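Per-record layout

source: Arcobacter venerupis
name: diguanylate cyclase
length: 369
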Amino acid sequence: MISNFLKSTTVRLIILVCTVLSTLIFSSILFNTQIDNLKKQVDNIYFGNLIPIVKLQIISDNYKEIISCRTLKYVCDIKKEQLIIEEEWKYYYDAYKNSDEKIVTDTINTEVLNAFKENKLHFFKEVLNKINFLIQYETQVAFKERKKFVEDYDNMKKYLFYSIVIILFISFIVIVYIIYQVIKKDKQLTVLNKKYKIDSITDSMTKLYNRKYFDTIFDNMPFIANANNWKCAFIMFDIDYFKQYNDTYGHDMGDVTLKKVAFTLKEYFNKKYEFVFRLGGEEFGVVLFDIDENSLENCLKDINYKILELEIEHKNSKILNIVSISMGAIVYEPHTYISANKLYKQADESLYKAKENGRNQYHIYKGKE
């Protein structure tokens, strides 16, 4: 039961929906994750390169103020500039640096701290040169970081593109497979339904229409004839002395003979509006729409001859040494409003008349006889 449920169309459609949703969710998560990584890299470039340069530039400007003042006069009030330089330098110096950057800044750090202790113009100029060197150094680092960022960005774009393509491809394969299974299942159901409909109206042995379908067609024959202003005919066939045939040759051979007779009838009456039925046992029926008496009589002669042509041995037949048939037929005139039951009874009487007259022949109902 669980296995059948898992194979059901409902489960496949649920899997399809889940696949689509999972693809969208996973793609969104992947995209957001990579965007976050990109943001971190941008932040690192901004705070790791731009901010240090800004700080160094502030330090440089204040050193220039001090040098400018000291160049004009020996005694200057540089406390304000000193406070700004020390504060900005501390921020810059304490910020994260790799080992190479640390070596450079440690050397300059000593000179920055000693310059105010010495308080001499040439010390300030030397430190300013070192600060300007650091600005150039940080600028070069920023260019390298930007180049690395652009490369990472391109790689990230490719990674995102190929990842989403792969996800979509896999999802597409899953969706196509599920749709294929659903269509396949639907076709199977259509075939099964069609087969069921055919089986429900077909005799399993002879493959002719069965008695149930005959009742449907025959009951509606008068209405169809009236609506289309058609003459219609019904023929009843009976294999002569079929009980004796079964007693002589066995039921298996009897079934073979039934199939041969059925095939002959079906092959002959194969046009549109011609329906062949197995009514039961060795009895068959044919309903013909839009036919006249002359055509009907020709059909009866032809089919009688074709059955004899089969030359199926029947040594215990009382009329021939081969299988033969007897036939009774009626013609329905449009708008005579005779019931289907009465028509069937008339055809049965005609069949009885053919048997009474010696079998291996036909009889067409001509009214009260």
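summary: The domain at 211-364 is CATH 3.30.70.270 (Alpha-Beta Plaits). The chain has two domains: 2-180, 211-364.
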